[in-house]
């Protein structure tokens, strides 16, 4: 579980995160949504320890980040898996080498132990025969699977994904979303996804946090999205005509049922 309390971050006097409070539970897929520039990436970078907030606490399973020793912070890094926007694979390394990288960085395992774990996670993301391929030989969806395999190879407690569907077609996006959600439940991971993909919101948003100009504007589940009166959320969702129609149909159905 990750708890965020009164998180504040500013750059050159401009406040980009304004007193964010949030709780992210393990075994659940939480989405942080919001328009471009709303503060999603800065928020994720604060959680990753890449940016130091001026004020507020980030608490990982009861441990306050700012009170951790250097060793504890290093240990925490091993517990965090990250899927970057655009996959961020090493182009000149094979799939196997890409996925093995964190094990080489953080463990003293033998080659046999490492390759056993690599094969296990590749199998888990349905990439059994891709060990010796290079990223350029794979489709965008397959590259994303490799990125997920690499993110979970250390058996993380926390999984952060920055726009995991960017560049993917809607069908492949859904497959990747479902894979992330399945893995989250299977291994009881606390998963936080930055997204502006409404499909993802509706498909896997067990908890959704809407940021607007650095403020937490709304919080709820995917079931609650279409019933909300929150203007900012409606504005965000209504930018897609498809969802506008779905909401109208949903409200009509609810009204006729009551
Ligand atoms: N290192 C930085 N220095 C100065 N300003 C920054 C820095 N990083 C982010 N910002 C500013 O913080 C605000 C929030 O940016 P952020 O990247 O978190 O938005 P976002 O919601 O992730 O947008 P997008 O969906 O486009 O990725 C923006 O106004 C941005 O210009």
TrEMBL record:
Molecular functions per Gene Ontology: ATP binding; ATP hydrolysis activity
Cited SUPFAM superfamilies: P-loop containing nucleoside triphosphate hydrolases (SSF52540)
Record-linked Gene3D superfamilies: P-loop containing nucleotide triphosphate hydrolases
The protein, known as: ATP-binding cassette domain-containing protein
Domain ABC transporter: 2-238
SMART domains named in the record: AAA
TM helices/strands, residue ranges: none
Keywords: ATP-binding, Nucleotide-binding, Transport
Species the sequence originates in: Aureibaculum algae
One Pfam family this sequence matches: ABC_tran
